[in-house]
Structures are given as C-alpha cells and as structure tokens.
Design goal:
The structure holds four protein chains of four kinds. By secondary structure, chain A is an all-alpha fold. Chain A is built from eleven helices and no strands. The two termini of chain A are about 35 Å apart.
Chain lengths: ~325, ~425, ~300, ~260
C-alpha cells in the first residue's frame, strides 16, 4: 500500500515525535549508566538545582570544562529535562490528534512515569541512597519501554494492521514474545541489583544476584532464539516481525559478548577460563575508557533489547492472525486431502 | 504489572528506610575461634572505636602518625564537591571488594579469585622490604598505581597522586586497626576470664597495655618499613645491555638453581614451571578460614567422645563432663552460625611462570624482591636473608640469575616437549 | 473445546513462571537493599567510646607536650661517652688473601674493626649518633662545604666511619702501592682509585643508616659512610666520646644510635643511660629525649655486650 | 663469634639484674608425668606425595604421640607470666640463653616436634635431608628456604602466649610447634611423658598446660585441684623443694 494513501487515525507528527522521544531516551539511559559506572551520582549534591543554580542556568563553561563526573551528572540532568519536555509535547500532540482514548491514557502514564523517574533521581541524590539509585535504574528502562510502545502504537503498520494470511501458531508467537519482553525487563532489574549492591552487603548476596543474572541470561537467550526461529519458520510473511526478531538475536549475541567483557574488565579472566583466554599481563585501568564504556554499553544494550522485545511483542499481538484451525488438525486435513 | 513491581520495590525500600552508615565489625571468626566473652567483644569494639573512630569519621591517632586530612578524603560516603574534589574514595574504589573494615569480604569478594586482600593481618604480598617487615608507602602506592595483573585488582593510574596517597593512608589505617584488633582479641582470649574488667577508661594499666605494648610495636614496624627495604648491591645488579652470551649463561645458571635443591623452585612451580607442583597448601588468610572449618568439624567428634565418657562417668565427674558437653555444644553452635558467611578456603596455587603474568610487577627488581623475601603470607619462602645482616640462602647474584631464568620462561616455547628437569644430583648443592 | 482448555492452561503456566521469576527478582532487590548486610558482632557504643577516647587523649602526656613543644625555642647540646659493659672481645685479624706485602703491617694483618673498644677505659669507638628528624636546623649544623679526606693504606680505610652532609665533597685517596676500587653501596658510586691517586666524590642524597663502603678487589676492606641532610650527627672517638651541638631545644628529639655490629634491627645499638631517667631507649636503638634551651646534656651510655651481634 | 665471651658477659648482666631485684635465692622446681586416660583417636595418616625421599622415610602424624604406659609426648607445660609482668630469672639459666635452639628437618619431619625458645635466643634451623625444605615460623614472620645440609639462623624476637605452628610449605604434611616466651620456665613432655622445670622463684605461679591436639588441657585433675577452662592451674612452688605432680591424667576425649 502506498504511503501517501491516507490512513484512518494516523498522524505523521505524533508518530515522528514519539520516535524522537524514544530515540532521545536511549542516550539518556546510556548516560545514566555512565553516571553509575563512574560513580558520578553524587557529583552534584543538591537537586533540582545544580550547586544552587537553576538547572538550565548553570554556567555552561563550568559544566563543559569542569570535572568529568560533574559533566556527566549535569549532562544527565539536562538531557532528562529535555526528555521530560518531549514527553509533554507528545502528550499535547496525542490530546490533539488521537481519537483512541487509551492512547491518551498512555500519554498521561508516560508523563507520570517520567516525573516519577525524575523525582527518584532527585531523591537518590538528596538521600544518597543506593537502593533508590537501583530503583531509579529500573524505572528508566520501564519508561523507555513505554516510549517504544507509544512509537509502535502511533506507527503506520500498527494502524494498518493487515496481514492477509493467517499464521500457524500465532498464539504461541504472541505469548512467547510477551514472555521475552517480561524476561528482558526482569534481567534489567537483576542487572541493577548486581550494579547497586550495598557496600556492606554479604558476599553471598552478590554471588546470588550474579548467578541469577547469568541464569536468566541463559533463559532469555533461549527464548529469543526460540521466538526468532518460530517467526522465521511460521511468520516469514510479516517482515516487521522477522526483522525485529533477527535484530533481537543480534543484540543478544552482542550483549553476551559485552557481558563477558564486563566480567573480564571488572573481575579479571576467571581462573577456569585462563586456559583459553590468557590473563592480561597488565592490570585493567580502573575508570579507564575501555572499562567504563564496556560496562555502560552492557547496561545500554540491555535497555535496547527490552525496547526491541516490547516492539516485537506489541507488533506480534497486532499483526498476526491465528489460523482458524489448530495446526495439528490442519495437517491431518492436508494429509486427508 | 510494572506498576506493581514499582509499588512492591518502593514498599521494600520504605520497609528498610534510610540505611544507617555502615559500622566497623569485629573479625567474628577470630572472636568465635578464640571464645571471647560477649562483654570483652564489646570492650574491644569500644577500644577500637575510641582509637580509630568509624568508617564515616576515622581518627588519625597521634601515635599512629596517620594523616587526618588524607583519611577524611578516603573515608565516608561517596560525593564530590563543587571544585570536583572527590570524597569517600575508599567506598568509591575499594569497598566493593575489600569491605568496610578491610576484611577482604566486600560484596563482590565471593566471585573473585584470588579473594580480595584482608588488610587486617598487616601482611602484604608485594613489597620491597624483608619478609617480616611492613610494606613502605611506595610499595602500596605502586600496587595501586599498577594494579595486580591477572587478578581483579585494577590499576588506579588515572587517579591524581593525592587521591592515591589518601587511599594508601586509609589502607594503612585499616591495617593498623586490624592488627590492633587481633592483639586485643589475643589478649582477651589468653589473659581475661569471663567477668574480668577490660576498660581503659578506668584502668591506667589497660591504657598502657593498649597504647604502648600493643600499638607501640605495630607502629614501630610500620614506621621502620622504609629502613627495611632490600637494596641489592649495585655490583650484583646485571646491566640492562648485556651481551647475549652473558645473558644466556645467566639464564642457564638460573635454570640450574630453579631445578636444584638449594633454591627448590621446582617443588612448587613444578618441573614445567606451569605452577603444577605443590598445590595443596594455604596462604595465611585462607588457612585461618580452613582451620575454622576443621575445628568446627572436630567439635562434633569431641562432643561424641565426651558423650561416651559421660556414659561411663559418675558423680562429680559426670556433672563436669555434662558441663563440658554444654560448652562444646555452645561453641559448635556459634561456629556453625558463621559458616555460611565465610568465603570457602582456597589453596594457594603456585604461579604459572609461563604466562608472563607477574602479579607483583614484572621489572627485574620486582621479581628479585619476590625471590629474595618470598611472598609474605603465602607458602613462597624467602631465599635471601631474613633481615639486615642475616645470612641468605642464595647470594644476590644467584637471585638475579633466577630472575633472568624466570623472565626467559614465557618465551620458551611451551608447545615443545618440556625440557627434562635437571637431576638433583647434577646440581651442586654445596655452599 | 479441549484445545482451548489446553491453551489457557499453558498460558497460566507461562504467566506462573514469569510471575515467579519476577517475584524472585523483586524480593532479591529488596534483600540486597537491606537484609543482606553483614550485621554480626558488636559495634562500638558511642558513650563508652567517648569515655575511652578522652582518657587516651589525656594519657598521651607526651603527645600534648609535643603539641606545645612544636614551637620550642632555643638550642641545646647533647654529648656523652659510650662504655662497654663486660669484657671486650679481641678482634681477629683481617683475612688478607692477596697482596700480603702491601696489605699487612710488618707481616701482620691488622685487626678487624667490627667492634673497637679502648682497653682500660672500655670506651667504644665508631658509634654513630644522629638526630632522626630535625624540625629546625641551627646555623652551625647547616650542610658543610669543607672537603673531607678519605684515605686508604695497607688495604684499610683509614677513616672507618665517616659522617657527611649532602653536597659535601669527599676526596677518596689511595696511598697504597696497588689499585683499589671504592664502592659506596646505595650511592651508585663504584670507582677505581689508582695507586697513589685520588678521586673526588660528592654526596648526592642522604640516608637513614650508614652505607657500607667496600673494595671489591680487597673484599675484606670495610668502612661506613653516613650522608645526612644536616650536621646533627657524631661518631664516637677512641675515648668513646661524641658531641652534637645546637640541636633544637624544648621539643622531643629522637636520636638513632648505630653501630656496625649493633644487634637491634638495622644495626641499631641499644644501650642504657642509668644516670638519665628522662632518656628513653627503644629496642631499635632510638633515644627519645627533650632538652631545655642552653642545656648541655651529658650522657654516660653503658652498652651491654649482648647489644652487639658478634 | 665468641660464645664464651658472650656467655660470660650475659651472665654478668643477669647476675647484676638478679642481685638488684631479688635478694633471697629461693628457688623450687616442678615435675610430673602426663598420661592419657583412655585411647585417643588415631591421628589421620599423612598424605605424602612429594619427594621420593620423603615417601620412603614414611613420616608419621605427630599430632598425638602416646608412648609407653600411655605417656603423652609434646605437651607444653610452662609458667604463665601475666601481660605486663616480669619474673626473676635464676642465674643458672644465663648460660643457656646464649645457646641456640636447634630445629632439624630430618627425614621430612621436624625434630623436635615441640620447640621451646626464649626471646633473645637464636633459632638454628638445620636441614639434614638430601632434599630442600623451607621453614615457615609464623610467629617470627620467618619463611626461608633451607637447602639440603645447610642451616639458617634467626634471632627469636617475638613471642606469644600460646605455642604456634611451624610448617614446611614444600612438604605441607610437616608440622611442628614452637612456644616463645621471654623467660626460661617452659617444658615439653618427653617420650616418657615427663616434664620438669627447675629453679623457679618460690611462690605461687600459674602454670599452663597445652597440647596441639587438645589446645588448653582443661579440667585436668592435679594434686589439690584441677586446671581451669584455659588449662591453667595455680601451684605453689616451695623454696628448695620439687613439687611432684605425679601422673596427670588427660582424658582421651580432650585430644581432638
């Protein structure tokens, strides 16, 4: 269908705005991760002001040329405000252009979530509490998932929602994609637990969190590969699903490599692996470029996986049409014919 | 559902409220192993609190000569001030592995191999001083600056020198505090009976004991460290640009020493130098935990054999044995309660010398120090003198030859069949 | 109908599993948030800590004196004599292994100098005394500029122990009819001094203990050199006497007493000063004392035989 | 270098100290024999995998050595001087202080298994085996390689209230125990389970009974009482007499 053809309920500006919002949220997550990685969270001790200045009036020279962790933390705050304003803008557009009532609900929910997230960030600074930092770190990806959902809901493919041919096992795909999205979020929560373990926690607590994170990583990977395989075999005709699922597989592979690299730059090559990977003869530099960015990339790609999984799950719910008869019955029918 | 997650998590958070600043805790394995009475445990905690303050407010006692400014910079929660000066450096960089009290039991400790160092014994592996001496400031600074290759200890080369100096000071502070704790616990265990007062506030004898007899020698050892540095004689140091022949001869001599019965390197590092020799020993840190596990096991047997005695005993004897069973059971319970929180003891595995990873540094002088004074706390013994003026097992020249051999090992192709170890009888053992 | 039932069942299970995982994750985060802390054993209690701290603060009388004395004024002099307690050992001759015609005196190898005690008075020679850290330095003790002669004859260093200040120059002479090399350990100096020749050496850096000086050609030759930043040092003479003038008064001082055969760590020498109870000796041979301005402190140091490692 | 000279000098000083602190030459002794009551558990056999020489020598686990008539070897019996106090030393001991304490690595075992040293003494660690050993004396922070047929000397400068372990890391099955005190009133029981400490200043003293397998030998009956929870008993030493404790029975269950 040509793009020029008018589509009921489609608003170019709303969709573009929603995409911009999602695209702006991702770097925010990345920089937020960097704040934790470089322990810059307490670089600015007050909130919502920055050293007494209004957030937007803080002298930019001091920000850009000042210490690294102030640069990161203040930058995180500036970008967060921008994202907040983009959310408000999107809500205005939705209120003006949307006729789906639940979309308006989601718009308000998104605004509420971004405000909650801002307050959590502020409280984390004011109370200097690591548990709050963890909660802040878990809410961020949740908001990102909502922005991705809004971009999906306002998209052309969502509104058009035509898939002429019914798909075998559409129900399975729908459920599995939902499970993947949920697991991806849980994995992020676990990652946040690993990252924000209190300074006086027992070693076995951290060990447990790490093992659980690894266990869930295995489960999530298997699920994603499974989903991608089913989509490749059963729903080839829906390019959006096919592409998204392949992207997910790629991201998971990348994420596993990043995870292993994170372990090595933080905790060195494990003894059992030193037969295959030779240990570094020079120690990793704490807070160095390699370490900081590998660790942060692992966090950010986690969010990206969540976003892709959410998009995949939503599209799967919308685009797939269940075959009228169960697969087994149809096979039997085919054999009979 | 996500909202539900947030609600639950917030509820959990509200449930525990704002967490208190973490306190220093006693070394409970030592406290339980030495069966220190609860009132003495409290007294020890109080004395240490008076002398060293808290993790948020450390005290540089005048007698320790520590620098209060540096300690303040390193201690407390993590934050930065307006000009970007960092605070809470220890909690920013170290606490995750080394723990609040420097016990090497930070949150990540269990997943690391080797375990992070427990500073509380005042024993450090990589240093330039004689075996029994403390490390110098320079030694600790070097470890921070270069990290420990092959372990989770990273390099802090990016930190400005004043921050590294603050961390070194704080590590010394935690060590001195830990050494003091151990002496107090030893004293309480050996000298005090339940009910005995142990209170410096009202007893000048205890004041003298704590400040002079305990802190005095600890500080003497730390302050004297820089005079205990092993400086190889200039004449013994091989020049950098030796002719290949000379180097080859030195490597060959080093190899003979390596396999010979005087230096005995082969016994632990193995005939292939892959670290595959003696593997079932412990370093002092793991040995303490291993002993704790073993003694806890032994308690079970002891209780059983006391019960057999009880069956045969009569009258006063029986009452006494009954009391012993109660005591042993109580100790067992206290020990058992700690077991789950301990890091499982690991054997000290000799270094694989073919990897080219030298934890204490790879400069010739670093390897020289490792061989000359051994690696304190580990099974690696000293081959040089035990102190100034003492007789070493090997001469400095011989140690340099082993250094040359060890440095040549990573370049010896390991894929080739390993060279046959030299027969002990082929190597001269005489002086 | 049956198919439908199966489906919902599967769905329930799926949700059940994810719900279970999620509960675990949340409880884990809660756990790591508060209950996973290491909270075993007693913690110092604030009131008691304060009481102990107050006592420890007042008990360090020396410390508070030190605080007041950091602004000490005036100068004082410390001098004394080292006396051997017991029967001094006789020194065996040097083990001269070559060039006997040059290295012996009338065919006799000279006695070793590991411990030189004057017969009769039992005065100990070659004991080094120096102030460890001077807070201020009197003009008279500022680094010296005069040249010092350091000669060797009969394969012996004629000055067995020499003290110097940084920047001071040493003329290392060789009065023997054979070549010597002079190796000042710890300084990087190792030069051949031709027969009858002389080589100058300038002291670059100070040291905490005297450096050994040897000759690799005649390995029995031994001397010691102490380079210091200031002139607060002395070497006892044949009468066992030493004097360090114009040291800072009114503040605690710490002197190191050193002898090449001292048994204490770092060759420290531990003696006793029975006549001066205010002089405190550590087991490293360090002497803590505070002098009054213009005081001339005279010490008789009795050194027991076991203070030497022989 | 000159032991005779040193001994005389040290002796002179000790006499001087003694004369200053104590006027009456009132000294007594203590002796006894320690036996096991019952049959103690057999110590686990040593796992000797290293060095054919050691395997051939078949060293045994000496953590509990019971001799003839149930005599218990290697018990440390010593006078306990509370922290911060001093005890008069009999001049008889002066000459012994100058003697080195010998610890021999022989047949992949330490000889003796229970070592006594006084602060100031020299520990002379020998290796009579054809294989190399290292000797790790934790209490002295000493850990040095001792090649075959050679020795290393270390000055004993730090002690502790209780015996501590001596180990060889090349042969981790090798163990011994050392007690370092700054007085000479220490003893270990020999093959026949007997011990004797001579020339103790008369008066009441606390004696410590300790064994490597049993730790504090607590609640052990002595003449007129028993050891306390920390294996100590206060005993009266009378001038010119020997306090004979006779046979002291340690229940087998205490050795674990």
């Amino acid at each position: 269908m040509p793009a020029s053809e008018p589509l009921a309920g489609y608003s170019t500006w709303t969709h573009r705005w929603a995409v911009v919002l999602a695209c702006a949220t991702f770097p925010l997550l990345w920089i937020g991760g960097l704040v934790t990685t470089t322990d810059a969270g307490m670089a600015v001790p007050d909130w919502p002001n920055t050293y007494g200045y209004n957030l937007f009036l803080y002298p930019w020279q001091t920000w850009l040329l000042g210490p690294w962790d102030l640069f990161i933390e203040h930058g995180h705050r500036l970008l967060a405000s921008t994202v907040g304003m983009l959310t408000i803008g999107l809500l205005v557009l939705i209120l003006r252009n949307e006729n789906r009532r639940w979309m308006k609900g989601i718009g308000f929910a998104a605004l509420a979530l971004v405000i909650l997230q801002g307050v959590l960030g502020g409280m984390r600074v004011l109370l200097d509490e690591r548990t709050l930092a963890m909660l802040h770190g878990c809410t961020g990806p949740a908001f990102f998932a909502v922005t991705v959902a809004m971009a999906v809901f306002t998209s052309r493919s969502w509104l058009r929602a035509t898939d002429s041919s019914p798909t075998d096992g559409a129900g399975i795909i729908r459920r599995l994609t939902l499970v993947v999205a949920v697991l991806a979020y849980l994995q992020l929560v676990l990652g946040a637990v690993v990252r924000h373990v209190p300074v006086d926690a027992q070693p076995d607590t951290f060990m447990l969190a790490v093992r659980f994170h690894l266990f869930l990583a295995a489960i999530l990977t298997l699920h994603i590969i499974g989903v991608a395989w089913i989509i490749q075999t059963r729903a080839r005709q829906v390019p959006r699903l096919r592409n998204l699922s392949l992207a997910l597989v790629g991201l998971v592979v990348l994420q596993i490599v990043l995870g292993a690299s994170t372990w090595i730059v933080k905790f060195a090559v494990p003894t059992w692996a030193s037969h295959w990977i030779s240990p570094q003869s020079v120690a990793v530099i704490q807070g160095g470029w390699t370490q900081t960015h590998i660790v942060t990339a692992h966090v950010a790609v986690g969010s990206l996986i969540l976003g892709a999984a959410v998009a995949l799950a939503l599209y799967a719910q919308r685009l797939l049409i269940e075959s009228p008869l169960p697969l087994v019955v149809r096979r039997e029918l085919g054999a009979a014919i | 559902m996500r909202a539900l997650a947030l609600v639950t998590a917030t509820a959990a958070l509200v449930g525990c409220g704002k967490s208190d600043p973490p306190p220093f805790r006693l070394n409970m394995t030592n406290v339980v192993a030495k069966q220190i009475a609860p009132e003495h445990q409290q007294a020890i905690a109080n004395i240490l609190g008076a002398m060293f303050g808290t993790p948020d407010e450390p005290i540089a006692l005048k007698e320790t000569g520590l620098d209060q400014k540096k300690l303040d910079m390193a201690a407390g929660p993590v934050w930065s001030d307006k000009v970007g000066a960092k605070h809470g450096l220890y909690r920013r960089h170290c606490v995750h592995c080394h723990g609040i009290s420097g016990d090497g039991r930070g949150p990540t400790a269990a997943v690391l191999n080797p375990y992070p160092r427990d500073y509380r014994m005042g024993v450090f592996k990589f240093k330039s001083t004689y075996t029994a001496a403390e490390p110098t400031n320079l030694d600790l600074t070097k470890t921070l600056h270069e990290g420990i290759p092959g372990t989770a200890m990273p390099s802090f080369a990016l930190l400005p020198p004043d921050e590294v100096a603050a961390l070194v000071e704080y590590v010394k502070y935690l060590s001195i505090r830990g050494q003091m704790e151990r002496l107090l616990e030893d004293h309480a265990s050996v000298e005090l009976n339940a009910g005995d007062k142990f209170d410096p506030a009202n007893d000048p004898a205890v004041q003298k004991l704590v400040m002079q007899d305990m802190l005095g020698p600890i500080m003497e050892s730390w302050n004297g460290a820089k005079e205990q540095v092993i400086n190889p004689e200039d004449a013994s140091i091989p020049p950098d640009n030796r002719p290949a022949k000379e180097l080859e001869a030195s490597v060959k001599a080093g190899r003979e020493l390596f396999y010979g019965t005087r230096a005995n390197c082969v016994k632990c590092h193995g005939p292939t130098a892959l670290g595959d020799g003696q593997q079932d020993d412990y370093d002092v840190w793991n040995k303490a935990i291993n002993d704790f596990f073993k003694a806890t096991d032994d308690k079970i047997g002891q209780i059983a054999s006391l019960k057999t005695d009880l069956a045969k005993a009569q009258g006063d004897d029986a009452t006494q044995i009954r009391q012993q069973i109660v005591d042993a059971q109580k100790e067992f319970n206290e020990r058992h309660a700690l077991l789950s929180s301990l890091l499982l003891p690991r054997n000290a595995i000799p270094r694989n010398l073919r990897e080219g990873v030298f934890r204490g540094g790879r400069r010739p002088i670093d390897v020289f120090w490792r061989i000359s004074s051994g690696i304190p706390g580990t099974p690696m013994p000293a081959s040089g003198p035990a102190g100034e003026g003492a007789q070493g097992t090997l001469t400095q020249k011989e140690i340099w030859q082993i250094v040359d051999y060890v440095h040549s090992l990573p370049f010896e192709p390991a894929s080739l069949p390993q060279k046959r170890p030299i027969n002990a009888s082929e190597v001269s053992t005489g002086e | 109908m049956e198919y439908r039932w199966r489906l919902t069942n599967k769905m329930k299970r799926l949700f059940g599993i994810s719900g279970f995982l999620w509960m675990l994750a949340v409880s884990l985060s809660g756990l790591s948030g508060c209950s996973g802390r290491a909270d075993m054993g007693p913690v110092a209690d604030a009131a008691n800590v304060k009481a102990i701290r107050d006592v420890l603060a007042t008990s360090k009388g020396a410390g508070s004196e030190q605080a007041a004395a950091a602004t000490g004024t005036g100068w004082a002099t410390i001098k004394g004599q080292f006396v051997f307690d017991g029967d001094p050992p006789t020194m065996p001759p040097y083990n001269v292994t070559k060039e006997a015609e040059i290295c012996t005196i009338n065919g006799q190898a000279p006695p070793q100098e590991m411990l030189v005690v004057t017969p009769g008075s039992k005065a100990i020679k070659n004991v080094v005394v120096f102030l460890r850290d001077a807070s201020r330095v009197n003009d008279s003790a500022k680094p010296k500029t005069d040249r010092v002669e350091f000669d060797q004859k009969h394969c012996l260093f004629l000055t067995h122990v020499v003290g110097l200040t940084v920047g001071q120059a040493l003329d290392i002479k060789n009065s023997d009819n054979t070549g010597h090399n002079t190796n000042i350990l710890g300084s990087g100096f190792n030069q051949l001094i031709p027969a009858g020749g002389a080589i100058p050496y300038k002291v670059q850096k100070d040291a905490q203990v005297p450096n050994k000086v040897t000759c690799s050609i005649h390995p029995w030759m031994t001397a010691y050199m102490l380079p210091r930043k200031d002139g607060y040092f002395a070497v006892s003479d044949a009468d066992g006497k030493f004097e360090i003038a114009n040291v800072p008064a009114g503040e605690p001082l710490e002197f190191q007493v050193w002898h090449e055969s001292g048994a204490a760590p770092g060759n420290g020498l531990v003696g006793t000063t029975p006549d001066a109870p205010d002089v405190k000796w550590s087991n490293r041979g360090r002497v803590a004392v505070t002098l009054k301005p213009d005081d001339v402190k005279e010490l008789k140091v009795v050194v027991p035989a076991k203070a030497f490692r022989l | 270098m000159n032991n005779t000279f040193k001994a005389i000098a040290v002796g002179a000083i000790c006499v001087a100290t003694f004369a200053a602190t104590s006027n009456a030459a009132d000294w007594g002794s203590i002796k006894g024999r320690i036996v096991v009551d019952g049959t103690p558990a057999k110590p686990a056999p040593l796992v000797v995998t290293k060095d054919q020489f050691c395997i051939d020598k078949m060293p045994v686990n000496n953590s509990i050595v019971v001799g003839k008539d149930n005599a218990l070897e290697n018990v440390f019996v010593y006078l306990r001087v509370p922290a911060g106090q001093k005890i008069d030393i009999n001049p008889e001991y002066a000459s012994k202080e100058a003697e080195p304490v010998t610890l021999d690595n022989n047949g992949c075992e330490f000889h003796p298994h229970a070592v006594l040293a006084r602060i100031g003494q020299t520990l002379d660690i020998k290796n009579s085996d054809p294989v190399g050993h290292n000797t790790n004396v934790n209490v002295l922070s000493f850990n040095q390689v001792i090649p075959s047929n050679s020795d290393a000397k270390v000055k004993v400068s730090t002690g502790g209230a209780l015996p501590t372990e001596i180990a060889c890391n090349i042969h981790p099955f090798m163990k011994a125990w050392i007690l370092v005190q700054d007085h000479p009133y220490t003893a270990t029981t020999g093959e026949d389970g007997t011990f004797e400490i001579k020339d103790i200043p008369a008066g009441k003293h606390e004696f410590q009974f300790w064994h490597e397998a049993g730790g504090y030998l607590k609640n052990v009956k002595l003449k007129g009482g028993a050891t306390d929870k920390k294996g100590r008993a206060e005993l009266n030493i009378e001038a010119g007499k020997t306090l004979d404790l006779g046979d002291i029975k340690v229940p087998a269950s205490a050795l674990k």
